[in-house]
Design a protein that fits this description.
It is a single chain. With about 270 residues, the protein is an alpha+beta fold. It has three domains: about 5-95, DnaJ domain (Helix Hairpins, Orthogonal Bundle); about 105-175, no CATH class; about 185-260, Urease metallochaperone UreE, N-terminal domain (HSP40/DNAj peptide-binding domain). It is about 40% helix and about 20% strand. The chain is built from eleven helices and nine strands. The strands form four sheets. The protein has a three-stranded mixed sheet. The protein has a two-stranded antiparallel ribbon with strand order 1-2. Strand 6 and strand 7 form a beta hairpin.
């Protein structure tokens, strides 16, 4: 793994405060923005390095870990750091997306909205992305920033594009957009008497290999769903985790189970 130094990439000293870090990043992000370097392929690689350096140094905890490794391993700190932090870890919680949007509003450069459109329209150029067997079409904004189909631009990724837009944006800029994790659905079985009174209920989260204690509200009904926020599939690139939904199923008494078995048997 090639060695690099996050401070050198941003052109700042190791004592730079948060404002200097952000100012340095804004200046470099504007300089190497893809819209201003269409004829220079190397700018895209530099943009990725700048994004990564800012994501690390703008986060107090990640910066502290990186500084510790620099003190211990010198020029090998980057390799050590990247063996501990994945790309998802590095960009989680970063405000890079907001800075891109600021540039879009201030200078007419492409931001999240202006890169992709959910419809054909003036100012958009169709292009095709092929990667690892995946082929998809998108649209790049080449006109003046500000309106789409006569309507003001809104924040966020166009809903008709969703995750595929996030994929295309990452390919174009090296920055992954936050994606909320998928929900998880499961069923828990309990006696009607317990559901009536409510209380703590043990649950083993198989996907996370974790034991949980779920609080069952008094008066819970058969078939009712209980939502556990942020306990679903983990989000990507700083996006929130999905939710876990547990469907309550009442256990039948042994006598009732036997009755159901007899009825079903004789009906055949």
């Amino acid at each position: 793994m090639s060695q690099q130094d996050y401070y050198q990439i941003l052109g700042i000293d190791r004592n730079a405060d948060a404002k200097k870090i952000k100012d340095a990043y804004r200046e470099l992000a504007f300089k190497y923005h893809p819209d201003r370097n269409e004829k220079d392929p190397s700018s895209a690689e530099m943009m990725k390095k700048i994004n990564e350096a800012y994501a690390v140094l703008s986060n107090a905890e990640k910066r502290r870990d990186y500084d510790t490794l620099r003190h211990q391993y010198g020029e090998n700190a980057y390799g050590r750091f990247r063996s501990t932090y994945t790309e998802q870890d590095i960009f989680k919680g970063s405000d890079i997306q907001h800075i891109f949007e600021e540039m879009a509003r201030s200078f007419g450069l492409r931001g999240v909205d202006s890169i992709f459109s959910d419809f054909y329209g003036p100012g958009y150029r169709q292009f095709t992305v092929k990667d690892q067997g995946l082929t998809g079409r998108g649209f790049l904004y080449r006109g003046r920033f500000g309106k789409r189909h006569g309507k003001p631009m809104a924040g966020g990724v166009p809903p008709r594009l969703g995750r595929f837009a996030s994929y295309l944006f990452q390919k174009a800029t090296g920055v992954g957009l936050p994606q909320t994790g998928d929900p998880i659905y499961d069923t828990i079985h309990m006696a009607p008497e317990f559901a009536k009174s409510g209380g703590p209920f043990p649950y083993f989260h198989r996907q996370r290999s974790k034991k949980l204690v779920v609080t069952i509200p008094a008066g819970t009904r058969d078939g009712q769903q209980i939502r556990l926020a942020r306990m679903g599939v983990e989000g990507k690139h700083g996006g929130e985790d999905g939710d876990l939904y547990l469907k309550v199923k009442f256990k039948k008494p042994l006598l009732e189970k036997a009755k159901d078995f007899i009825v079903s048997t004789f009906r055949r």
